[in-house]
Amino acid sequence: MTPLRRTPLAPDALDTTDRAIINRMQDGLPLVSHPFAALAKDLGLEEDALIARIQAMREIGAITRFGPFYDAEAMGGAFCLCAMAVPATRFDAVMTLVNAHPEVAHNYERTHRLNMWFVLACEKAAQIKQTADRIERETGLPVLLFPKEHEFFIGFRVTA
Fold this sequence. Notes:
Blueprint: H1 16-25, H2 35-43, H3 47-59, E1 78-84, H4 91-99, E2 104-109, E3 116-122, H5 126-139, E4 144-146
Antiparallel strand pairs: 1-3, 1-4, 2-3
Helix pairs in contact: 2-3
């Protein structure tokens, strides 16, 4: 898992093409034998150039991961938003412990008393509490659970 970005990117870190790639990737990849080639064609790029740009955006922290979004509940699983109040002096160590759990879908630092927010995605609903309990034992810190009450779909777009 890529470490958390703690400083903003420079305003010129992404060019118009990078922004167009980010926007297009929000719509998903085509389900074809060469999805990056098809995506590159949509964007007027060569496949190798597209892949290199995605890798470069990952390296500078503009994107932290690239992959499918699974609906755990539709497949019989469960997910839950979680938060922790982590002392600043322990943040990196606790982040490493939390991120070591394969159930952790993503993890974010916030400037708030509850400064670590992450999502647990599990095969069974009971595993949410079990995983949170393991994290509490490993870190010595309480894990607050915020189960979903309503689902909202949002789109993320950048000015291209």
